Amino acid sequence: MGNCGMEDLIPLVNRLQDALSTVGQSCSLHLPQIAVVGGQSAGKSSVLESFVGRDFLPRGSGIVTRRPLILQLLSANTEYGEFFHCKGKKFTDFDEICKEIEAETCRLTGSNKGISPVPINLRIYSPNVLNLTLVDLPGITKVPVGDQPADIEYQIRDMIMQFICKENCLILAVTPANTDLANSDALKLAKDVDPQGQRTIGVITKLDLMDEGTDARNILENRLLPLRRGYIGVVNRSQKDIAGKKDIEAALLAEKKFFLSHPAYKHMAESMGTPYLQSILNQQLTNHIRETLPAFRSHLQSQLLGLSKEAEEYKQYSCDDPARRTKTLLQSVQRLAVDFEKLIEGSGDKVDTVNLSAGAKINRIFHERFPYELVKIELDEKKLRREINYAIRNIHGIRTGLFTPDKAFEAIVKKQISSLEGPCIQFVDMVSQELITTLYQCINKLSSFPKLQDETERIVTTEIREQESKCREQVLLLIDIQLAYINTKHEDFIGFTNAQQTYNQSNKKTVAGMAGNHGVAAPSRLIVVRKGWLTISNIGIMKGGAKEYWFILSAESLSWFKDDEEKEKKYMLPLDNLKLRDVEKSFMSSKFVFAIFNTELRNVYKDYKCLELACYSQEELDSWKASLLQAGVYPEKVTVDGQGNGALENCTDPQLERQVETIRNLVDSYMSIIYKTVKDVMPKTIMHLMINSVKEFISSELLAQLYALGECSALMDESTEQQQHREEVLRKHAALKEALSVIGKFSTSTCTTPLPPPVDSSWIRPSSPTLPKKPVTGGGVRGHAPSVPRLPCSYYFPEH
């Protein structure tokens, strides 16, 4: 029988199975095959043994098939079996094949009733078989036995689904005739993955065990509970026949006699029985292979193309060649230097659209985090005036001073300059930590060589720490330089005369003037500083709860709209007298929050004293803070409430009040110069002493220091994982090439058989709730399916 002109297709797939079996499932390639699915004791093993004509499968009570068995049947003149795990060994005794299956099963699953998805590959050559490739799967069970886990039913279902969900797999759904077909586990699983019935073939076993007066004629004629590919009935040996060692050839004769003599089946005896089932499976598998082979070849080619470059590199690499090791070391260090520089300087080669690069993060530290930290450390107005007051009075002592003492100005300015030390050191630490994080990101690519990775990390990290120390010293030196000489002749300094002239205007300072005094450019009133989404998080549930709005920050107000079309304005909040306060992130929330409040304790929004605004990341939070700072909304200052020194005493001396105000204006003017200088010089210092130095070190000094260790050969020792990965890639590459070579020798320009027409299979109810449901068309009712006449065999499988 068989499909003429295509006899070699199934052996072709078997050769592909051999070629790809060396790489297991790592290729994600699904070869055409037939999966045998059914409940326990449904007769699956008996059907397979009838195909071979030999007893070779383990038998017993409960679950016997505990690992998938990939059975390749090949027509040959001699009869023997081969296991893939016993290459080169021929099994001519089929009892030995049975024992080997049991031993190999127990090797992975133990002697009890555990299961494993790792298949056993068995190839049987015989003159009594047609070319077939089948997968015998564990029978579906409901109750765990022995040491089986409680979820054994779901484990078996998952294992079966791994095979039958593949589009290249035909499903042989085996159901005993003496059970309710509508409750067939095999048909339910097939329905889940093949709702249109294009891959499902029904097999009805144990027809001889049905109750007297009943038969399965309507099922086998595909009238009741129809399938697109129909049903085939078989009669296997009974347990008594198996125990009595009844010959399978005799059983096949008895099966043929059963169908010819049974009044319900004799009119279709030619399309029933094990030999007919075997020939039909051969034809359908052959046709299925023919249809799927072009797509399978394309899949092979795409996988081979993806591996070619990596495999070529591994072929040229020899772990024992000193020259090759040296070259790989040099290339690895050069790649590290290039990757590090790209992450710092930016690159247009591969732009990350998900995360900020190291360079972008350092830029944010330079221009957002550092200016914000500088403003945060300023003293509040009351404390500053109190210190100026005490400085003036302490300098005068018991005498009454007629002039404003410049020493008071110098003392206050030096104290303010000294307070910059903390933010500047923190600035250095942040950049240093970012460089180390960038280094870790780059050296992860050296994981193939653990010793090289460890030594590179140690050497470069040490260099970063050394440069960080130098940078700290330079920063402290810059602050000491500013403390060493207070330059009151600076061109941007207002001087004492101008300071006294501003006394009467002290109460008219604008937000823009405050921004100028702090070294932050005052934005134009017409310019929008920032736009973006923020969530107002402190609105109670009774008033609508937290909501997200589109915010627009300008130089004079903060407005929010319903959405980013900016048509429906919800509110506009003037920036006068507003301050910024950090809000600690709550345990249950994933958002980052800050608050805006009025310094005069007025309500900010409706009856709320403050407005808590939330965003989704620390980067957004820092950016909003920097934008608010630019618009003149400054962080909340920490006030000192001491006993007797906590508040400025009422000043009734007009002369002292005038001197305090004069020095206050002078301090503002001079510190604005300092802030501008520090914000300009600090990034340059760090760029020169840390970032550029580390880049230069990696590109020019790292290789020399690695060589100085005197262990260059040991540095290039591969990790076990890398060795396994290289071997797997080369093995997979060779298997794919061999598979393509096998396909290339075969022509697919042969005929095939069309699928039977669709039938109403809605009678099959969905299976386990854990399995995915798929929509099913049709409306048949169990027991009342539409009459679908069984077409002649020549329609389904015409001879070519």
UniProtKB/TrEMBL annotation:
Q: A GO molecular-function term, please?
A: GTP binding
Q: Give the record's GO CC terms.
A: cytoplasm; microtubule; plasma membrane; presynapse
Name the segments for region: Disordered: 753-785
Q: Which Gene3D superfamilies match?
A: Dynamin, middle domain, P-loop containing nucleotide triphosphate hydrolases, Pleckstrin-homology domain (PH domain)/Phosphotyrosine-binding domain (PTB)
Q: Kindly list the residue ranges recorded as spanning the membrane.
A: none
Q: Where is the protein situated, by its record's location annotation?
A: Cytoplasm
Please state every residue range assigned to the domain named PH: 527-633
Q: Which SUPFAM superfamilies match?
A: P-loop containing nucleoside triphosphate hydrolases (SSF52540), PH domain-like (SSF50729)
Q: Does the keyword Hydrolase apply?
A: yes
User: Where's it mainly located?
Assistant: cytoplasm
| Superkingdom of the organism of origin | Eukaryota
Using the record's annotation, list all stretches that form the GED domain. 660-751
- In short, the EC number is 3.6.5.5
Residue span(s) of domain Dynamin-type G: 28-294
- Which keywords, in A-to-Z order, does the entry hold? Cytoplasm, Endocytosis, GTP-binding, Hydrolase, Microtubule, Motor protein, Nucleotide-binding
**Pfam family of this protein, just one?**
Dynamin_N
Its GO biological process annotations read: receptor internalization; synaptic vesicle budding from presynaptic endocytic zone membrane
The question of whether Membrane is a record keyword is answered with no
**Which family does the record assign?**
Belongs to the TRAFAC class dynamin-like GTPase superfamily. Dynamin/Fzo/YdjA family.
What name goes with this protein?
Interferon-induced GTP-binding protein Mx
Whose protein is this, by species? Cottoperca gobio (Frogmouth)
Top-level taxonomy? Eukaryota, Metazoa, Chordata, Craniata, Vertebrata
